[in-house]
Records
---
Amino acid sequence: MWKSTVDWLVFTVFGLSANDHLAKALHFFIYDTVKIFFLLSVIIFGVAIIRSFFPPERTKKILSKFPELIGNVLAALLGIVTPFCSCSAVPLFIGFIEAGVPLGVTFSFLVSSPMVNEVALIMLWGMFGWQVAVTYIVSGVLIAIVSGVVIGRLKMERHVEDYVYQIQMAEAEIPNSSWPERISYAKGYVFEILAKIWPYVVAGIAIGGLMHGYAPQDLLTQIAGKTNPLAVPIAVLIGVPLYSNAAGVIPIIKVLMDKGMAIGTVLSFMMAVTGLSLPEGIILRKVLKPTLLAVFFGVVALGIMMTGYLFNWLL
């Protein structure tokens, strides 16, 4: 129904031809803007309800009870429903270490939480379907688990800044919210997230619309298609310094896929942007010595590239 409404608006009200580049770009922009904001509002509300059961204090307490491997799996899964921004990486890291959470388990959470976030999941589901969304979740969780296991087995605790182990944080009370409080929190969280990301969403969809209407398909296929063996590492290298909200990236990569970019390359690019951002690396340097920080970036980048090549080969 919504598609037919947009068709009527673009082709009848605006009087544009279906073959016009402008019509294609405008149709993409209007259709996807409304659809994405609707999906964001509904699903972020649901995610916020789940998130209200897992405040940082409870997450630390859960993870401190389990040994490595089991802890890595739980940390990666909890990272999905407890996303954090770059600015909270340091206090979360210190809190986990102080609570006795193993280093490798902590890194599984640090990788999963920003990489597999609800905004990216919702937009992938809405624009590509559930298959791609599930692929994204499974890939991100596996990368988080394997990265945490590898870092844990390397026994790199000595490469954490010394002051981290000397900090004694007070035990915070775990809040026990009522359902009205959870619903109120979820409503506020929806407005908070939308207020932060709406410029990225609109800008991303606008750029995606222009590319959908005007970008030449053959050129994009040649540069980032399956036939280019360097497409995946190039996508990761570009994504790391490109600090961007996933909401602004996904509308663009949808068009890139429509124009011929392989799905593995697309996933690699998006995961590098969300999971290996340069600002997060700069902030983590406050608690990690250069060797461990380099290992963290290297292991995660390798996992992302392997995922990209795997999906380019399978699909």
---
Amino acid sequence: MAKARPDAMPLPAQKKVSAFTKPDVFDQWGKDAAGVRALASGDNVITMFESIGEDFWSGGGVTAKKVAAQLRAIGDRPVTVQINSPGGDMFEGIAIYNVLREHPQEVTVQVMGMAASAASIIAMAGDKIEIGAASFLMIHNCWVLAMGNRHDFREMADWLEPFDQAMVGLYAQRTGQDAKQVAGWMDKETYLSGTQAVERGFADGLLAADAMKVDAAAQAEDRTLNELRALELTLVQAGQTRSQARDRINKIKGTPGAAPEATPGAGSTDWQQSAAALLNSLRA
């Protein structure tokens, strides 16, 4: 294992492209990891229990700016980062990774539920990485939504390749695994159980079973937001812009955050059935 902190990850000089978590990863997270939380916390703990990057649907999201502010508040002390996230914007994840690796004291990462996609990059910033036996870590190549002709797509593929190679280097350095093996796992979009993550060097040890709990209220909220995120990306895959996708979802759901009496149906769960039907139709 690489006990010394890895080097900084590259970021685009001008970020014109966002890298997303695939809709099926959101599905997996909603099924297996939604609502998983830590039993204990503290004033030196940073929690990442939502998507990476600004989240339109929750008004939150884990960003490098927020993490940097939390680290300043913690000061020159060891920090624990608790993760249960389906990922999100890979480039925001890289920025968070870079912020964490600059912290002067030990960084302990605890994977609770799942650290997928961009969240798996963040996890590699830990001097010590712990994962639940029933938790997962998922790695894959950078995934984007793009439009254009064949020349545009060739250019995009060439533009993305260095970032995939950088992720291969990061995972290989942290795990001690052969870079070609790591690249193969990324090509296959690999989910690693807690035990597999430890065996392959992505984590140092397993978390105690009593370190985590499932919060029923948080689970319901996580799954609701998860359906919205997955539906948005699926609509974009079908050819709509993000604005068009969000407008369509809001017509089904009602205005985000609106009180039930202000927006008919906003306080009802009927929209979830309509959204799920639309999502299944698009996937079919």
